[in-house]
Design brief:
Length: 364
C-alpha cells in the first residue's frame, strides 16, 4: 500500500487567487440543484445516496479552510444544509476528508484505481477505546475493533478513520470499505433525527488501511479547528431555512406574537452570520494559526441561534407544520440532533478556560 507522493500546495496568495477563480458560489449552488433534480425533499434511504453521488460527481471538492475562500466553502455548506441536513452531513464529511488528505500531504492515497470515491471521516472515540493497529507493514496497517458514529457507512467507498497503536498514540488512516475485514452493523443509531444518515457502528477485523501523516497529526493540524468551525455553517444554513418559513408565515398573518418570534430569529441569525463571516476572514488571514478559541466561539454563537430559531419555530407556528409539513418536521428534528455535535457546557468550559488565561478584550 503506497501513499501518493504529491504534497499539498502552500496556502498563499497565489493559491487563494486560483481557488477564488475555480470556486464560484453561483456555480457551486447550481450543483446542488442538479444533484437534487427529480428528488423529493426531505431525502430518504433511497434518494440520499443518489443525491450524495450526484453532488460528489459534480463537485468533488471544495476550497479548503484557510485557502482564501473559506467563506465560499461555508456559504455552499449553508446552502446545502438549507435543503437537507443528512445530505450536507455526508457531503461535508467527503469535502472534509479531501481537505484533510491535502493538508497532510496525501491527496490521493489510492491513486490509480478506477473506483469512484465518496469519503467519510470517522474520528469519534468511546470510553471503551478506539480501533487498534494490530500489525504494521511500512505505511500499511491492519485494524481491529469497533468504530462508532460512522455516518453513511453503507454508502461511502473510503473513510478516514482514527486508531491507536500499542503505545496509545493516535493515528489517522485511510481505509477502503470494500474489503473482507469491514462489517457495517445496524447498531448504534436509534434517533429519528438524522435517521437516514445511518450513523452506525462498524466492526473491523484485520481491515487494511494506510497511515496518513504522523502520529497525532490529525488533531495537531490547523485544519482540525478550522473544519470544526465550518460545521457551524451547516447548522446556520438549516436555521436560516427555518427562519425563512417563519418569515413567510408572518407575512400572511396579523399575529403580534409571531412577529415577535420573527424579530428574535432575525437578531439570532444576524449575530450568527456576523460571527461566521468574521471567523472565515480570520481563518483566511491567519491560515496556520491555532483556531481552537475561534472555532469554539463560532460554534457557540451559532448553536445559540439554532436554539432560538427552533424555539421560535415551535412556539410561533404551533403544531401544524410539525405534524403536517414533512420537510419542516424533518428539518426541525434533524437540526435538533445535528447541533448536538456541539459539546454544550464542555465546549463553553473549554472556551472560558482559554479566555481566562488570555488578554483578549471585547473592545468595539
Amino acid at each position: 500500500m503506497q501513499i501518493d507522493a504529491d504534497r499539498a500546495l502552500p496556502r498563499d496568495a497565489t493559491q487563494a487567487a486560483s481557488a477564488s477563480a475555480s470556486f464560484d458560489i453561483g456555480k457551486l449552488q447550481s450543483h446542488i440543484s442538479a444533484a437534487l433534480h427529480g428528488l423529493d425533499l426531505p431525502l430518504d434511504d433511497a434518494t440520499l445516496p443518489i443525491a450524495v453521488r450526484r453532488l460528489v460527481q459534480r463537485c468533488p471538492t471544495l476550497p479548503s479552510p484557510g485557502s482564501g475562500c473559506t467563506l465560499t466553502r461555508w456559504r455552499f455548506l449553508a446552502s446545502l444544509a438549507a435543503r437537507d441536513l443528512p445530505l450536507v452531513k455526508l457531503y461535508e464529511a467527503h469535502a472534509d476528508a479531501r481537505a484533510i488528505l491535502s493538508e497532510l500531504g496525501a491527496p490521493s492515497p489510492f491513486a490509480g484505481r478506477d473506483e469512484f470515491e465518496i469519503w467519510g471521516v470517522w474520528a469519534a472515540r468511546t470510553a471503551q477505546g478506539d480501533l487498534r493497529i494490530v500489525r504494521r507493514e511500512g505505511q500499511g496497517v491492519y485494524l481491529c475493533g469497533t468504530k462508532p458514529w460512522c455516518s453513511g457507512a453503507q454508502w461511502v467507498s473510503h473513510a478516514l478513520v482514527t486508531c491507536v497503536d500499542q503505545s496509545g498514540a493516535l493515528w489517522l488512516t485511510a481505509m477502503p470499505m470494500k474489503q473482507a475485514g469491514v462489517r457495517v452493523s445496524e447498531r448504534g443509531w436509534e434517533s429519528l433525527g438524522m435517521q437516514v444518515t445511518r450513523s452506525v457502528e462498524i466492526d473491523l477485523m484485520d481491515a487494511k488501511a494506510v497511515l496518513i501523516g504522523s502520529s497525532n497529526a490529525y488533531l495537531d493540524r490547523p485544519g482540525f479547528w478550522q473544519g470544526g468551525a465550518g460545521i457551524a455553517a451547516c447548522w446556520y444554513g438549516a436555521a436560516a431555512a427555518l427562519g425563512a418559513r417563519i418569515r413567510e408565515a408572518a407575512g400572511r398573518r396579523s399575529d403580534p406574537h409571531l412577529h415577535a418570534h420573527l424579530g428574535s430569529v432575525d437578531i439570532a441569525l444576524s449575530a450568527a452570520r456576523a460571527q461566521l463571516r468574521a471567523a472565515s476572514a480570520s481563518i483566511d488571514s491567519l491560515p496556520d494559526a491555532d483556531a481552537r478559541t475561534l472555532a469554539l466561539r463560532t460554534r457557540g454563537v451559532v448553536e445559540s441561534a439554532v436554539e432560538n430559531v427552533l424555539r421560535a419555530a415551535g412556539r410561533g407556528l404551533g403544531a401544524g407544520p410539525l405534524c403536517k409539513d414533512r420537510w419542516f418536521a424533518h428539518m426541525c428534528t434533524d437540526l435538533a440532533v445535528f447541533v448536538r455535535q456541539s459539546h454544550a457546557e464542555h465546549d463553553l468550559e473549554s472556551l472560558g478556560c482559554a479566555l481566562a488565561s488570555s488578554n483578549e478584550a471585547w473592545q468595539l
